[in-house]
Amino acid sequence: MASERTPLLPPSTGTPTPVDNPNPENRAHRLNDVRILGAAFFFIFASQSTIQTLASTVLPPSIAFNAAGTLYVSFALFNLLIASQIVDRIGCQAGLFISALTYTIHNCGNIAALKWTGNEFVQNSILIPTALLNGLGASIIWTSQGVYVAKCSTPLTLGRYTGTFFGFMWSSGVIGPIFSSTLIRNNVEKVAVFEIVTIISLIGLALLAYIWKFRPEPSNPWNTTSLPDITAPIAEDGPAYLKTAKLCLTPSMLLLMPICYATGFEQSFYGSSLPLFIKTDTPSYDLSMKLYLRATLGLIITVTAFAIGRLIDRFGARPMVITSILIHVLCQSLLLFAHPLNNLPVLFTAYACIGVSNGILFNLTQKLVGTLFPPHLLSQAYSGFKFHTSVGTAACFFFSNWGLDAAGIPEMRIWAPLFLSLLVASYAGVRFAAK
Length: 435
Hints:
It is a multi-pass membrane protein. This protein is mainly alpha-helical.
């Protein structure tokens, strides 16, 4: 078996070199490792997304929104200050495993908070610290993931590799909610549902341990593309923790800010606000329908992820952002004018629209970050990208309380223009960044 520090190289006999084979986009080097990584994230985020979806219903909304907002503020700050340094020091494989432990801890915090129903002080005392810790872990795991996938691919195949990873990961949004809904319909206690999905998430930890201990470092021998030096403002002699902050101020990253914020707002909106359109007098029915809607979202994102990567590689960024804008025009029109409260056809269509848009934006931003910045700054680039995305998500979570009407339903006269404005700004940023 190859050493952990030895990159996988193609066989020496009869294998073309990069010079002999000028079409690296035809190479699927280390793609199976990316699939294993996606499977690990499947188990971890099947648990995390299910618990996050249920939290706003089984916990007081203020507790759930504050905990989620705290997590993403922590996520943003740690991305800016230390995530890239940690990944550079311990390696992306160790970073993946160690940071995944914080998701298990936060899941356990949600279980404990649910057991203290009625005592909001204790619930906050449990969830705020575990959310802060999970924010640190999230900053490391997503920086590690971006570096790992980018180093396994080439700039010409990064869309395909990213789509493969997210296809596996986002399928958790189908299986997790359906599984949890089945448990709830069979009268399994909510605490037991949280405990079961948390135990299942340990399979993901085992897969990440395998990647860390038994797979070589990520590499691709056909990745010979040299990128222009667009990072002159980043001084190499300053404090290490300022490296990501300086990269966030480079023109390329500033141009990507709107699409980062659009992606973050989408995440928060479908995770916390959109489920509030289900509101009947039967709590178990509400929970089940929210999980089925989340499963629909997961299915659409999964299909989009597997399909969109090659399209992004082929057609580029700008047509993809235009597609997302048109999808949101349809989605926001439905939520604004079609009376979405407990209207399942409208809500299933809205979830499907957001699923396609989110699949496009996630894949596109991952590819743009991986191709606009040189390899030696990948960890800082992905940390900076996640900083902006998490700031957007945190802002949306904290804003969600003010984005509700008197009946506790999302006020679409606020949300619709906000989303469309962000996406138009995203198109302008991508148009110049991807030149």
